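Email to the structure team, subject: VCBS repeat-containing protein model.

Hi all, the expression group asked for a predicted structure before they design truncation constructs. Nothing fancy, just the tokens so they can compare against earlier work. One-line instruction: predict VCBS repeat-containing protein, return tokens.
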Amino acid sequence: QSSTIFTGQTTYSTGSNPESLKAVDVNGDGKPDIIVANYGSNNVGVLLNIGNGMFAAQTTYLTGAGPVEVAAADVNGDGKPDIIVANSV
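Reply from the structure team: attached below.
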């Protein structure tokens, strides 16, 4: 039997009213980054994984009104994930 030990909580700032998040390697370094839909800020935040369980402060990208869902897929066929956003309005 194994025991699991959790370390203390680390919090990261996002935009207003975060609705959805996904963990995906957006910069190709092999580490999962975080994409978050910030409904109240009308943007998407990307927090890059800097290793050791830590993430850089979010970089934001404007979206249409009220983003509620995010996804990532290689839409244009270049081998890199593209960020897809669904807005409520």
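The mean pLDDT is 92. DSSP finds no helices and eight strands in the chain. Ping us if the truncation boundaries need rechecking.
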